[in-house]
C-alpha cells in the first residue's frame, strides 16, 4: 500500500499537487517513487517557463529508469526545488514534503484544482500498479 495524502490532488501520471495561495506545488507520488526505485538525478535543464498541461517539465532518473514529470496545469513555472540537485533521494524519503519538484503560478487555480484526481480516485489507480 502506498501513502496517499487526502489533502492533495493527483494526476493519472502519478504527480501530486498541493495548493499554496495562488500557486501549486508539484511532486511525484509515493507510488511513483516506489516504482522508479532509488532516484539519482533530476534533469531540470530543458524545462520551459511556460507550462502546458500534460507536457513534460523535468525528467527523474533512477537506478531502474528515467521518467517524465508532467505539468498538471497550464501556467508559469515559478521555481524548482534546487535542493534536489544535491539530494535527489529526497523524492524517495519525503515525496510529499521536501521532495517536491516545482512550483507554478496558475491563472485559474480553482478550475485547475477541480480537474485533478481526488485522493480516492488516485488510490484506485495506484492499486492497479
UniProtKB/TrEMBL annotation:
NCBIfam families documented for this protein: gcvH (TIGR00527), PRK01202.1 (NF002270)
GN (gene name): gcvH
Entry annotated with the keyword NADP: no
Subunit structure: The glycine cleavage system is composed of four proteins: P, T, L and H.
PANTHER family given in the database record: GLYCINE CLEAVAGE SYSTEM H PROTEIN, GLYCINE CLEAVAGE SYSTEM H PROTEIN-RELATED
UniProt cross-references to Pfam families, sorted A to Z: GCV_H (PF01597)
Residue positions where N6-lipoyllysine is found in the record: 64
Top-rank taxon, per record: Bacteria
Protein role: The glycine cleavage system catalyzes the degradation of glycine. The H protein shuttles the methylamine group of glycine from the P protein to the T protein.
Residues of the Lipoyl-binding domain: 23-105
Residues forming coiled coils: none
Cofactor note: Binds 1 lipoyl cofactor covalently.
Cofactor(s) listed in the protein's UniProt record: (R)-lipoate
Keywords: Lipoyl
Family: Belongs to the GcvH family.
Transmembrane feature ranges: none
Name of the protein described by the UniProt record: Glycine cleavage system H protein
